[in-house]
Amino acid sequence: MNDPDFPRRIRDAGGRVTAARVAVLRCLAATEEPLTPDEVLERLAQTAGPVPDRVTIYRAIEWLAAHGLVRQLATVGRAARYEAVEDRETHAHFQCRGCGQTRCLPAPPPPLPPLPIGYVAERVELVIHGLCAACRAGERR
Amino acid sequence: MNDPDFPRRIRDAGGRVTAARVAVLRCLAATEEPLTPDEVLERLAQTAGPVPDRVTIYRAIEWLAAHGLVRQLATVGRAARYEAVEDRETHAHFQCRGCGQTRCLPAPPPPLPPLPIGYVAERVELVIHGLCAACRAGERR
DNA sequence: GGTCTTTTTGCCATTTTATTGCATTTTTAC
DNA sequence: GTAAAAATGCAATAAAATGGCAAAAAGACC
Known about the structure:
2 copies of one chain form a homodimer.
Chain A: H1 6-12, H2 19-30, H3 37-45, H4 54-66, E1 70-72, E2 82-84, E3 91-96, E4 102-106, E5 120-131, H5 133-138
Parallel strand pairs in A: 3-5
Antiparallel strand pairs in A: 1-2, 3-4
The first copy, chain A, binds a DNA duplex (30 and 30 nucleotides) through helix 2 and helix 4.
């Protein structure tokens, strides 16, 4: 498991420890599925304490992403989705074309194809497009 | 190689053959890299003939995607990106975190991880996040 | 704890990307 | 050529994200 001391992780990254950053990081770390900024806001709104402004959420996520505590996923939806960076095993992302939901799946790390010269790879992401159980049941067949 | 008879492919998909659909499909098929709707519009604007409205481009892409002639990629950028569906060899997508550009790379098809029951996979996409040669040179090191 | 400096936040306005409604035009079948 | 169905253009609207700036909070120092 990862160190759940979010304030320390933020301080170690060289930033100020603010309520918004801690709340956003905790929210993303506590969630199974990657969330959009608005989904983070919704969840924080249901928690005790003051709710940060939407713009603050965006900026907190931006800062967390720039400092490697959170990462943005490749998605087909309109809104960006983020997940906390944990050192759990590698995983892929399933994305439902029906409801747009994204969820993590355990998966071995895929092989890295050769890149053009001068290019550097920093991360490899496997995205499985398809239909989730609920959406499949909902489609007329 | 693929059949370049775009009107026929559109008719075979069960739709009307319109100038906008043919132009959008041809544009995407003629381009190395996946394009955003606005990039498609830019390119069509530089071509001879009447330029379709932006909304028409959106709707043409939507129709083409719904009928399997075009597909939307998983991206981290703000705008959606599309590529023509060709039966060329499988490929991955490289996405530069500097300039946001997306390009195709030849790559073997990645293994499909097991899915939760009830889920169906329709496509697997491999996304390599990193820096392109130009952006890497631009970053201070 | 009090004071100072720097960073972050909240609010408002704005931009970018995408979607909807509806009258007009185009496509296709006959 | 004509009629029915579908697609388009235009204007308005929605959704997601960003920028500017004054007020507030965090951290460093005493």
